[in-house]
Amino acid sequence: MLKSYAISLLVGMLAGVIYSLIAVDSPAPPIFALVGLFGMLVGEQIIPLVKRLIKREPVTLTWFKQECVPKISGTPPPDEKSG
C-alpha cells in the first residue's frame, strides 16, 4: 500500500516538474481537482450498484458501508460483527 502512495506522489511530482519546465499552470485548482477525484471514486461505485440491482439483490446501508465506503474513503471495511 505504501508503495502505491510513493509511486503516486512521484508521478505527481514528475507532472509538476514537466508543467514547470514548459511554463504551464496546473490544469485545475487544487479544490476542483480534489472534488473531481472524489467524483471518480463515487462514480466507480455505480457499476457494482447497477450489477446488484440487475441481480435483484437488496441495496442496504450495511452493503454500502461494507462494499462502497472503504473504496471511496480508502479505509478498511468495518468488521461484520460491528457492522
UniProtKB/TrEMBL annotation:
The keyword Transmembrane applies. The chain crosses the membrane at residues 7-24, 30-50. Keywords: Membrane, Transmembrane, Transmembrane helix. It comes from the Bacteria. Pfam families: DUF1427. InterPro entries: DUF1427 (IPR009872), XapX_domain (IPR020017). This is ABC transporter substrate-binding protein.
